[in-house]
Amino acid sequence: MAKTLQFRRGTSAELDAITGAEGEIFVDLDTNRIRVHDGVTQGGIELATFSEAVAYVDSELSALVNNAPGVLDTLNELADAIGDDENFFVTVNNNINTAYSNAVSYTDTEITNLNLGTISTQDANNINITGGSITIDSFTSSDITYPSADGSNGQVIATDGAGSLSFTDLPPSSDTFARTLSLWSL
What we know:
Layout: E1 8-10, H1 12-16, E2 25-28, E3 33-36, E4 45-46, H2 50-65, H3 75-81, H4 88-101, H5 108-113, E5 118-123, E6 126-130, E7 156-159, E8 165-168
Parallel strand pairs: 1-2
Antiparallel strand pairs: 2-3, 3-4, 5-6, 7-8
């Protein structure tokens, strides 16, 4: 004799009003879906259909792959891309360290031989310059004390390092940085 297993069943409205025992199964006759009860939730928990479950999994996988190009959308393709190196992080880290240790560093003498000059800041108001050049972005006329008289032909303006300027002659064989200034108005 054949046996029949039959679950409790009802319309959606009827099942929405029921709080079944824990593990009790109902069939919703309006939606042809199964509801499982936990003994607490009124109406039970409606189970997904097979097609809904497949759609959900497909959606989650697509989000995981994040629309990667076809050549990198499987773990095997990603492994191939990193050369099947199970220690990929260590390999990359070692390559960075090797590149860093091979970086060129110059001595002060080598930098001087590039004729770029050197600049060393003594304090906020005093900069010593040997060779090369410097560009001053901005300063105001109140920062400098200008000479009260004009200089002679061939002289240059020099500073005492405290903001006072004066005219002076350049020594005939000097490598000290100096630049003549054309002062349009003082």
